[in-house]
Design brief:
Length: about 350
Amino acid sequence: MKEFIIIGAGQSGLSMAYNLSQHKKDYLILDANEHIGAPWLKRWDSLKLFTPTEYNHLPGMPFPFPKGYYPNKYEVADYLKSYADKFSIPIEFNQKIISVKKVNGIFEITSATANYQAKQLIIATGPFHTPYTPPCHADIAKDVKQIHSENYKSPAQLQEGDCLVVGAGDSGVQILSEIADTGRKVHFSGTDKIPAIPQTFLGKTLWWWFTKIGFLSVNRYSKIGQWLSKGVQPVIGTDVKSLLAKDNVLHMGRTLSADDCSIKFQKGSVSSIKNIIWATGFKPNFFWIEDISFDEMNYPSNYRGVSKDIDGLFFIGLPWLYTRGSATLGGVWKDANYLMTHILAKQAA
Ligand SMILES: Cc1cc2nc3c(=O)[nH]c(=O)nc-3n(C[C@H](O)[C@H](O)[C@H](O)COP(=O)(O)OP(=O)(O)OC[C@H]3O[C@@H](n4cnc5c(N)ncnc54)[C@H](O)[C@@H]3O)c2cc1C
């Protein structure tokens, strides 16, 4: 039995591991993937961070690039791997946990091939679990290629013919931009009003301004934090206005329904689409943890990562766990620090 188990070896699990190592705690990380950085490497090939180097540091090891540089997904995966190596973080891979329950004060943690036990448990499985695709995708002709953004890599995956990108978040507009740059005709489905902010303003990075105006310190329990965390998150770094003004980009409004080859949008129907990228997000899945309650978005009930239901159970890496920075490389350390302080205080009491 371990004193602590962490489920998930992404930036959140590694930050927690760093803290546990610093305090010489006995712990182990379990991860479903076969190596570190897998969630980053699975994302599309041209992905670059919207946070520059100086906002990507995990605790105890700086991100190894010059200030102002926007790393790609390979560089992030390499950094996470070096981080785990540097601090000799113990990780068991290929262990997707399918059930967690607390029995007689001990967490019983089960994968398809092994059982583990721990006195305290930290869930760091990230915010993106089940890809969501609107139900009308099932009414679309079989010869139309449909890809969720989770599986999109590059325009080379697409078959001949027109394309449709659905979703007005960061993923949707970045994928739209990449496909539009190939000259192919791309229909875009999403809201008319996409809030967007540039990556730099008056010579300073967006994240510099965020820090300056205190945005990254606003927490979800404050009035303004409640408003910000529940609102639409603006697209960062894509010039959406110019993108939608391109000759080969047709903005169709929201997708309403589909009938074989014909897809109906707010602004009309189209029958020529041969490829669809659904950048329509993910639903959280924490239902494999027994005896916990959920909020209206199906995230586990917690205060700053401390479970409201089960003593010794913690969460890290959820969007707006405490602030906008909670689910970022450079912000997760604050939540890890808070949890570590909480754990130590409880042990000392
Ligand atoms: C397209 C995109 C761009 C982004 N750009 C930036 C950016 O520019 N800057 C920034 O700071 N952040 C960015 N983020 C946000 C954030 O940094 C990432 O989402 C980050 O990957 C979250 O880290 P995590 O450790 O919480 O979760 P993840 O990286 O998702 O890691 C979770 C780990 O848990 C494991 N796991 C999951 N379920 C189980 C299970 N049941 N059993 C065992 N293991 C499990 C997975 O295998 C995975 O290794 C971006 C996110 C996306 C999607």
